[in-house]
């Protein structure tokens, strides 16, 4: 048993680094690739990313159910092999229409892989072991992403063309499959968990989504994960609008956030699991976002440059802490509120909130950056405060418990 756990830990840490290296190499130059190699209009690229996020969100639950029905490792491997083939397919896509269609199809397999990976890691481990490992994966993930982006930068400077980057990303998916198959050989995650007819699928998916605790977590995850697009979208826009002479602040904030998460997420996850601290961290992440939204609503009212600088720093610090806290808490919640028999499906259901945020977040923060009314920011303040209070009341009334005994109508 100890050997199996060590194998899983090694596979998870190594694969997260390899996966992120491939992803980082492509994502860092994807806009350039689509605009130059694929001849896609810049105004269309954002629409394609949105369509990809939508198709991936819709497909994530059915794909996760297939993993529970036919075997997590089998569907995971198939998904990653399709991602590898699909990545190579970008070499043959050209024009706006082809880009939009292919991006929508590619999103189905590309954006539904996260829950499959987590199900492989969580299944053989205890709740605490899985939570700590999910946090420890932040270090190799961020290092891999940085190395991948560095490789792309060198390729761009050397004018080698971006085709090799596509091949690197594709090969990274194949290597990840090999690592997991080798590490998980002989473990029960390779076996199917559901032996019923396909007619059961709707009942399983409904039970994953509409269970009270998981549904609440899905909504909370949507609201408490806005730190992602706040750092990636709002902060750069804020710098462009108010600190035009200091555009270097944008990559600096990204680097600071990356280093902090890489070094502290594993420690935070381990600390969060003890004495139910994850509940307090979950609420705290919501309150930190609420404070950020209040500051965002007030920014148009500030005329003093010094006040803007103070608010800017406060928002950045709040988002880094919110990411640490929410990531630690959601890692625990995913392990304790996902049923063993329907692990991938339940994980995917909880993750729907985060995927929905990926779709709506950029639009909300883009509008907030250029708006002088602050209505959107004020609305988000009430929603995040309300969600935080709701979590506190739920915990006070002991309305969240272990759901592994939960049954599904067959």
TrEMBL record:
InterPro entries, A to Z: MFS, MFS_trans_sf, MFS_Transporters
Domain of life according to the entry: Bacteria
Subcellular localization, as worded in the UniProt entry: Cell membrane
Keywords annotated in UniProt: Cell membrane, Membrane, Transmembrane, Transmembrane helix, Transport
Pfam families assigned to the protein according to its UniProt record, in alphabetical order: MFS_1
Membrane topology: Multi-pass membrane protein
Record field: transmembrane: 12-37, 43-66, 162-183, 222-243, 249-269, 281-300, 306-330, 342-360, 372-393
Name listed for the protein in its UniProt record: MFS transporter
Native organism: Bombilactobacillus thymidiniphilus
């Amino acid at each position: 048993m100890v050997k199996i756990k060590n194998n899983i830990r090694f596979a998870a840490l190594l694969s997260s680094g390899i996966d992120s290296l491939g992803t980082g190499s492509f994502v860092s130059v994807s806009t350039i690739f689509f605009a130059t190699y694929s001849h896609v209009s810049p105004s269309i690229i954002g629409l394609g990313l949105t369509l990809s996020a939508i198709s991936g969100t819709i497909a994530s639950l059915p794909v996760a159910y297939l993993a529970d029905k036919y075997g997590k490792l089998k569907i995971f491997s198939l998904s990653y092999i399709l991602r590898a083939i699909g990545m190579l397919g970008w070499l043959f896509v050209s024009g706006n229409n082809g880009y939009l269609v292919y991006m929508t199809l590619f999103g189905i397999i590309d954006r539904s892989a996260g829950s499959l990976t987590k199900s492989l890691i969580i299944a053989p481990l205890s709740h605490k072991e899985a939570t700590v490992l999910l946090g420890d994966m932040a270090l190799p993930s961020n290092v891999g992403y940085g190395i991948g982006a560095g490789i792309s930068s060198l390729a761009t400077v050397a004018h080698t063309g971006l085709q090799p980057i596509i091949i690197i990303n594709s090969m990274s998916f194949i290597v990840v499959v090999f690592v997991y198959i080798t590490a998980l050989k002989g473990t029960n995650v390779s076996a199917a968990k559901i032996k019923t007819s396909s007619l059961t699928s709707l009942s399983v998916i409904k039970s994953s989504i509409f269970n009270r605790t998981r549904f609440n977590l899905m909504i909370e995850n949507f609201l408490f994960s806005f730190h992602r697009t706040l750092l990636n979208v709002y902060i750069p826009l804020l710098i462009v609008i108010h600190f035009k002479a200091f555009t270097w602040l944008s990559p600096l904030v990204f680097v600071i956030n990356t280093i902090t998460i890489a070094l502290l997420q594993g420690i935070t996850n381990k600390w969060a699991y003890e004495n139910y601290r994850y509940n307090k961290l979950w609420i705290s992440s919501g309150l930190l976002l609420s404070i950020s939204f209040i500051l965002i609503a007030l920014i148009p009212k500030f005329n003093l440059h010094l006040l803007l600088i103070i608010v800017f720093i406060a928002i950045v610090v709040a988002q880094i802490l919110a990411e640490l806290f929410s990531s630690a808490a959601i890692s625990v919640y995913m392990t304790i509120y996902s049923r063993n028999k329907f692990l991938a499906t339940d994980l995917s259901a909880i993750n729907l909130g985060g995927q929905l945020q990926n779709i709506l977040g950029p639009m909300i923060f883009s509008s907030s950056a250029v708006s002088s009314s602050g209505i959107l920011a004020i609305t988000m303040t009430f929603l995040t405060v309300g969600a935080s209070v709701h979590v506190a009341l739920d915990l006070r009334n002991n309305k969240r418990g272990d759901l592994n005994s939960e049954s599904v109508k067959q």
